[in-house]
Amino acid sequence: MKKLIAVIAGIAAAVMMTCTAFAGEWVNENGRWFYNTGYDYVLTGWNWIYETDGLAKCYYFDSTGCCLTGAMTPDGYLVNNDGAWVSNGQVVTKGYESGMQIETDYSRAGGRYHTTSQRYADGSINNYGPDDFPVDVYFDGGCYVVSYYGDNQQSTEFFANYFSRYSYESQDRQKKLDFIDENNFRIIDNTYGTETCFSR
User: Fold this and answer.
1) What is the spatial distance between Cα 44 and Cα 75, in angstroms, rounded to a whole number?
2) pLDDT tens across 168-186, in order?
């Protein structure tokens, strides 16, 4: 009977722990772990994250977006020191399902992308074609973005991971680079209020 109750409780928890699908990455901010979705909000409550090891694990995030670790969640479930939901001493895992967060696989990121759109502070948007404004991305102690313009002109920007909720930031912290997944990223420029999106 106890096993049946545990199974029913597990199924109820699995149904309860659903979310919208986006890709992102774990970031550490002053010893507290957050999940950067690549969008302008933090995760709260239970979220399944499909990780680069090919397994999905479930994590509980408080109202500030901080992942609870090594504790009992407010609804009575145990999470380990990594924040993953644990049942009967084992991390609960499953394969990919629609609606899960997906951790960015940086081993597959980088290479050639193209500029798809730019949103301005006034809300207007410019959309671009696949041959407009290509960029090359590579990693070497940080993230380099090489932008190409007419007549083979180019400029290179360097972004480092300063352990903030953004994937990478410029040294002056005015530009933030987020990988949505290995095929899509964006650059937010606080100085000009623009958001530029790039895709494969």
Assistant:
1) 13
2) 889 888 998 888 778 889 9
Say if pTM beats, i.e. exceeds, 0.70.
Answer: no
Neighbours of 67 (CB within 10 A): 20
Give Cβ neighbours of residue 200 (< 8 Å, ≥ 6 apart).
Answer: 111, 112, 113, 114, 183, 184
Which residue type does 127 have? N
With beta carbons less than 8 A apart as the criterion, state whether 25 and 185 touch: no
What the chain holds in terms of domains, given with CATH numbers, is: 2-103 (2.10.270.10), 106-199 (2.40.128)
Other C-beta atoms lying within 10 Å of the C-beta of residue 72:
11
SS3 call for 7: helix
Would strands 32-36 and 23-29 be described as parallel, antiparallel, or unpaired? antiparallel
Q: Which long-range contacts (CB under 8 A, 24 or more apart) does 67-74 make?
A: 67/32, 67/33, 67/34, 67/35, 69/33, 73/46
